[in-house]
Amino acid sequence: xxxxxxxxxxxxxxxxxxxxxxxxxxxxxxxxxxxxxxxxxxxxxxxxxxxxxxxxxxxxxxxxxxxxxxxxxxxxxxxxxxxxxxxxxxxxxxxxxxxxxxxxxxxxxxxxxxxxxxxxxxxxxxxxxxxxxxxxxxxxxxxxxxxxxxxxxxxxxxxxxxxxxxxxxxxxxxxxxxxxxxxxxxxxxxxxxxxxxxxxxxxxxxxxxxxxxxxxxxxxxxxxxxxxxxxxxxxxxxxxxxxxxxx
Length: 247
Ligand SMILES: [Zn+2]
Prior knowledge:
Elements (H helix, E strand, L loop, with lengths): L1 H21 L8 E2 L2 E2 L4 E9 L4 H11 L5 E4 L1 H6 L1 H9 L3 E4 L12 H19 L5 E2 L8 H9 L3 E2 L4 E2 L8 H13 L6 E7 L11 H13 L4 E2 L13 E2 H4 L1
Helix pairs in contact: 2-8, 4-5, 5-6, 7-8
The protein binds zinc ion (ZN).
């Protein structure tokens, strides 16, 4: 059953190559993005959705502040709630692949790795009718094989520079405090990529009300910054970590 995969992967690579030559995000190609160069920008990212009702609540909060964000979605949840994935895109945000069932990719076979990425891509493309360009590995689990396989499928890996630790937070204030401590103590300010969660990989319906409220407070606290999607982060002359350096 290799043939369908090869056909799909070739089409994805061909399409991405065309995209990379003209899009402002072409610097993402072959690299793992961790942050941008412009400290006036901030890219807030949400993992493990779509998740009712918290994803929709976040969309309202983001809309109020005219902020753009990026959502890394789990394929099996997208098949259950495709209308939430469509609402994210319709609101002007960016959507990425967070695998189909959220395994640690460090531990899975090469075949399972390909399946996880392509099943999630298919769920997203069926729901949204467009190619997916970004990928975030569950638990941040990277290894050369993960990055190579993602790259062959036209997926640029996106990590983060700031963690909200919202999966274990006892209040919204705790999340805001953790994020702002990291952002404000940077010796050389940069365009931060902030990791938060609108869902939980263990179950749909995971309570993310602290994250919704923390996001509202962070948008106010950093109102002087421009909240952009990951592809909107300016890269200046800096070098991100290339996949070669990580091997
Ligand atoms: Zn996750």
